[in-house]
Structure prediction request, 398 residues.
Amino acid sequence: MWLLLTVASLISALGTTHGIFGKFNPESPEVNMNISQMISFWGYPSEVYEVVTEDGYILDINRIPYGKKNSGNRGQRPVVFLQHGLLTSATNWIANLPNNSLGFILADAGYDVWLGNSRGNTWARRNIYFSPDTTEFWAFSFDEMAKYDLPATIDFILKKTGQEKLHYVGHSQGTTIGFIAFSTNPTLAKKIKTFYALAPVVTVKYTKSLLNKLTLIPSFLFKVIFGNKIFYPHHYFDQFLATEVCTRQTLNLLCSNALFIICGFDNKNLNTSRLDVYLSHNPAGTSVQNLLHWTQAIKSGKFQAFDWGSPAQNMIHYSQATPPYYNLTAMHVPIAVWNGGNDWLADPEDVDLMLPKLPNLVYHKKILPYNHLDFIWAMDAPQEIYHEIVSMMEKEKN
Prediction:
């Protein structure tokens, strides 16, 4: 049923926007650009930096120091850090037109905007100790993103800007690593003004996404099928879905894209003229171990660290036989939550279980029609979410 629903929605969307499923010709210049070029293309100032984590990963982070609407005032301004989700990159925040992309909207509202990249994606695939050709490079999951990537990136930004705190906006896995980091690292938590969580993912017990189907693969077979390095599922889905199900080129492009297959496709609220931009930059990659961690979370229904496969291995990593649980009640950073009623990944039932555990929940909004990707790409996201975020940030200035 999940496959039929996915294909049906794709057919419905593309049938109305393209007429026929013919050749897909990219038209947007950003298709072949890096993040800095995408920012500059729209006339915004762009800076890029390298952050080195404690365990040697080199992460590119991008900055929009000010907007076009306030370019005359280039003094110190409040800092906002945007962290992307699973299988994506910082491009998600600037993939739409400037009046529809959170990164540009915040810059024009007077904020110093920083865009993060998690280890293993297109813009964070270097390490001072290991080559990405090695299995050692890919031995990470969202545990390490929370333990190493976030502290290194946030500390770099605050040092560079000379400020003590910043606003944190996360989408999907970007919220997951925020929950972990801010509940386990009190020093880091004190550096966050407010945590803005879009489609938050903690437990995935009720998820309806394709990740649920990956749990059918026994753990010992998972790395046999997908390898033990990068999770780059184009070939798998090309064979399993695109070749068998999607017979036309445009439909094939979407059916073979892991992001849409995992998160869903909203044909009513997505600017299909930007599909070439979304598809050219996603999926941006992650580790097989990270996907395995997510399948473990689905099976257990718990919010806990990666299970290394045996009590002995877990003892080495955690000094206990089982992976430790993450305690949401220890996350005292003020948090505002937006979730969707039609979200395949951040299922409303999982979100409902999460909300009572947050000791400092300052705002919650459920957008009934929204699916997982609407929070970053929906045409009405500014009206439903982004303007509210700006308004809340403005109140903190006073």
Notes: Residues 1-25, 233-248 have pLDDT under 50 and may be disordered. The chain has 17 helices and eleven strands. The CA atoms of residues 238 and 244 lie 8 Å apart. The two ends are 51 Å apart (CA to CA).
